[in-house]
UniProtKB/TrEMBL annotation, chain A:
UniProt KW Lipid metabolism keyword: no
Topology with respect to the bilayer: Multi-pass membrane protein
Metal-binding found in the keyword field: no
InterPro entries in UniProt: ABC_transp_permease (IPR001851)
Main subcellular location: membrane
Record lineage: Bacteria, Pseudomonadati, Pseudomonadota, Alphaproteobacteria, Rhodobacterales
GO MF term list: transmembrane transporter activity
Signal peptide region: none
Name used for this protein in its record: Branched-chain amino acid transport system / permease component
TrEMBL record, chain B:
Keyword Cell membrane belongs to the record: yes
Keywords: Cell membrane, Membrane, Transmembrane, Transmembrane helix
Entry's localization field: Cell membrane
Protein's name according to its UniProt entry: ABC transporter permease
UniProt membrane topology term: Multi-pass membrane protein
Keyword Acetylation (UniProt): no
Organism encoding this protein: Palleronia abyssalis
GO molecular function, one term: transmembrane transporter activity
Cited InterPro entries: ABC_transp_permease
Main location: membrane
GO cellular component: plasma membrane
UniProt superkingdom: Bacteria
């Protein structure tokens, strides 16, 4: 028992929670934006992989870290545009298109990576984002290191949660976004084109997914290797259901999830006799559990996965 | 501009569309090869000679086609009923692991081949089934969307395999490498060619494809599964038992993916590792879509993917183009195929 207490009382663990949560926060917000306008985006896993690769490659090629994040976001938006064009005006199966985007984006990133770094036994590294101490606040005991000595993209992710929550519920654009996912016909009747709005929101959401991936290679680690996203994208899709499509609950879900992940990582090192694979399974099993708990209670956008064609029902 | 459904898509268009899609994907991938500084035409010629040019190349291509047919069928039968089984990768691994696990049972390994082989295949299929029935149960019971759960279970399944082959099923003779105990010789599928890896799994997979086609096209179950996919409410009104049909579809789909794993381990490797499958499960999804969910067309689509993968391996050695170009091409062809099928069914009106 005292071992558990030691882990829970350690600053290092709580510091890790926000770091682990950041890509999940960004990715979950991305999925949320797409699904709020009524489109499932299973491209996330591949878009995150591509963002991780291109963000890293930009910095490796001499760009600065923020340029890396920006390039990853732009690349994400481009994949988002592709997904949007296929699923919104053409109305193709959102499941299959999304998986296609994932397979394409992931294999394309490995291809580009191998072209850029042809022979490397150990993956080359970059100088990642350094923790940024917020003046005064970072001197607080416990809370200081846990909350106020994170890397800059983590702060950005937290600001984005607030911004998206505010935008979604307090602005006309947010109302239109929500309507596009609930009742696009009514939106059209109001003179807003649901098709354009959906395309825009999917691009914005996919840009966040690209950034989520880039965080992995420019802040959490300092190099890129294939399969590094490890299902985080799928976990984000599950977290959106858990969050009932609300940004503030998405933050909560990501933090909760990151807490369990940080906890199991530390538990692995102190508990003997339990195979490490069982610990590694936990994040995936927890996501499934979250889905089971929330599936019936979650308020699904009514037009989710329904293509919109003017004059058709 | 708007799209209007064609009342009667013409036969020529339906046949031409997939061909155009593949050509477009090859063209786009050719661009990527050119960017990398190689001649795309030369690259494609090398891919073809690599896949078909030699006895060994041909054997490799057909060996690789075998599991792809089965995982392609797994996705095709599930998607027909709108059961989004994205978990073929995990089902493949459990199916593979089930074979050495089953052979570890007392008395089993002393059985003669003709009895042992079908039992092992069944063990693999059952393992795959179980892994798909789990998320289906969650869908029917709690309304959990199976897309995410099957995806997440892929990771759980591979970790479970890792756990078993480093623990109770570890091969003590493998010098510490994490691999499972080997499958007994009696359970190894017979080879079809001398000094090459091609095995009896290929005719088995072909026979299964024909059988699945027959079930889908000619049986009551096939009709029901299509009805459930097209319009579950109408199907329920017409008296199709929704839950039971989905369970049967899941058994078939998971069973096929598990069978793919069993065939791979009994035909090629003889033991299980965590890199047994180069994404066979995910490729199966692409193959099913390339085949437009038609079980017989799955064979052709699986062959196309296998040619790309095997050919790209030898091409990449000769031209120093990353062999990932094969994955890129196959994924691109999925996207172009989706558009092509759409354009064959709709006309554009201004």
């Amino acid at each position: 028992m005292s071992v558990l207490f030691d882990i829970l009382a350690s600053v290092g663990m709580w510091e890790a929670v926000l770091r682990i949560a950041t890509p999940l926060i960004l990715g979950t917000l991305g999925v949320l934006l797409c699904e709020r306008v009524g489109v499932l985006n299973l491209g996330i896993e591949g878009i995150m992989t591509f963002g991780a690769m291109i963000g890293w490659l930009t910095v490796y090629g001499g760009g600065d870290l923020w340029t890396g994040l920006l390039v990853a976001a732009a690349a994400g938006a481009m994949f988002g545009l592709l997904h949007a064009l296929l699923t919104v005006p053409l109305g193709l199966s959102q499941h299959v298109t999304g998986l296609g985007i994932t397979l394409f984006a992931a294999s394309f990133s490995y291809y580009v990576f191998r072209l850029a770094v042809p022979t490397a036994s150990s993956p080359p590294t970059i100088e990642p984002f350094r923790p940024l101490a917020v003046p005064f606040l970072s001197d607080l005991p416990f809370l200081g290191p846990v909350l106020f000595t994170q890397t800059a993209p983590t702060y950005l992710a937290l600001v984005l949660v607030a911004a998206i929550a505010w935008g979604l519920y307090r602005t006309p654009l947010g109302l239109a976004v929500r309507m596009a996912g609930e009742n696009p016909h009514a939106l059209d009747a109001q003179g807003v084109d649901p098709i354009l709005l959906r395309i825009g929101a999917i691009m914005a959401g996919s840009a966040l997914m690209g950034m989520a991936g880039a965080f992995l290679t420019t802040a959490a680690f300092n190099s890129f290797f294939p399969t590094m996203v490890q299902g985080r994208g799928w976990i984000c899709v599950a977290l959106v259901v858990f969050a009932s499509w609300r940004p503030e609950r998405a933050l909560l879900g990501a933090l909760l999830f990151a807490f369990f992940d940080a906890f199991q990582l530390r538990l692995q090192t102190v508990v003997d006799g339990v195979p490490y694979q069982l610990f590694l399974m936990l994040p995936y099993l927890l996501s499934i559990l979250a889905l089971v708990l929330m599936a019936r209670r979650a308020r699904v956008p009514q037009a989710l996965m329904q293509p919109y064609r003017r004059g058709e029902r | 501009m708007r799209f209007e459904r064609r009342a009667h898509p013409s036969r020529a268009l339906t046949i031409l569309a997939p061909i155009c899609a593949i050509l477009l994907a090859l063209l786009l991938a050719g661009g990527l090869i050119a960017i990398a500084g190689a001649n795309p035409l030369k690259a494609y010629r090398l891919i073809l000679t690599g896949a078909f040019g030699s006895r060994l190349g041909l054997s490799e291509t057909l060996t690789r086609t075998t599991p792809l047919i089965l995982t392609g069928l797994a996705a095709a039968v599930a998607f027909r009923a709108r059961l989004w089984n994205i978990g073929a990768e995990g089902q493949f691994y459990l199916g593979a692991l089930a074979v050495p696990a089953f052979c570890m049972l007392p008395l089993v390994s002393s059985l003669p081949g003709p009895i042992l082989i079908p039992l092992c295949l069944m063990a693999g299929a059952v393992a795959g089934m179980v892994l798909l029935l789990l998320p289906l149960g969650l869908r029917l019971k709690f309304g959990v969307d199976e897309v995410v759960t099957t995806l997440l279970l892929n990771f759980v399944a591979v970790l479970f395999v890792s756990l078993m082959i480093e623990g109770p099923m570890k091969d003590p003779m493998a010098f510490g490498w994490p691999q499972s105990v080997p499958v007994p010789d009696a359970a190894i599928l017979p080879k079809l060619m001398d000094r090459a890896r091609l095995h009896a799994g290929l005719p088995l997979a072909l026979a299964v494809a024909v059988a699945v086609w027959w079930v889908q096209a000619r049986s009551v179950f096939g009709m029901r599964s299509r009805a459930v996919g097209l319009n579950p409410r109408a199907a329920a009104f017409a008296g199709v038992p929704l839950g039971r049909t989905l369970v049967a579809v899941a058994c078939l789909s998971g069973g096929l993916a598990g069978l793919a794993g069993a065939v791979e381990v009994m035909g090629v490797k003889a033991y299980v590792t965590t890199d047994l499958s180069p994404n066979y499960g995910y490729s199966g999804i692409v193959i099913a879509m390339l085949a437009n969910l038609n079980p017989l067309a799955v064979i052709a689509a699986a062959l196309f993917s296998a040619v790309m993968f095997v050919g790209a391996d030898s091409m990449s050695r000769a031209l120093s183009i990353p062999s990932y170009i094969a994955d890129v091409t196959v994924a691109l062809s999925l996207l172009t195929m989706l558009v092509a099928i759409f354009l064959a069914q709709y006309r554009i009106r201004r």
